[in-house]
Amino acid sequence: MDNKLITISSQLITAGQILHTLNMVPATSGNFSARLSDNKIAMTASGTHKGFLTEKDILTMDLDGHYSGEVKPSAEAGLHLQIYQNKPEINAVLHTHSRSATQTKKSEERFICLEGYELLKAFEGIETHENAMVVPIVENNQDINGLANSIEEFLHGHETIHAYIIRGHGFYTWASSIEAALRQCEALEFLLRCEST
After folding, report:
1. What is the model's pTM?
2. Relative to the CA of 192, which of 82, 111, 112, 183 has its CA 20 to 30 Å away?
3. Phi, psi (rounded to 5 degrees) for 52
């Protein structure tokens, strides 16, 4: 294992511990990834408890979906790859099954608009609370290619989108680093709770 992979693996393990403590990745839910190079990422393996990850639970994958290692990627790996392919400036993608995002199954909204919150400044590129951030909500689909197609339109030409929700499932957020993506996870969950009360 090279030094960069060791560092990234350690950061993904720490992210899992933090998000587990925040009750955002119950049981074996969620998946995380981080860019290793222009065409390669590290990703958590399928079926792993994110609060108890080890280096053996991290695999490497190229942006065409070919992976190496003794463990298999999540069926949702394609959603991570889609973000890296569309946004070359992105270095980390975190997917959680937070309670607030999962509860969107109770609504019929197509998006949530977060506006005027001071905590919006936790998201990369937002420097004032005098902003509105749209979080699209897409319908859950076990066909990952179909799900990716419904998300594709949001990823093109929407520079202000930092996350999307899969209805009744959870959310994806992405950033220039694992640390920044973690910050966005915590902020988004808090803001979704504010919107639901």
Report:
1. 0.94
2. 82
3. -130, 35
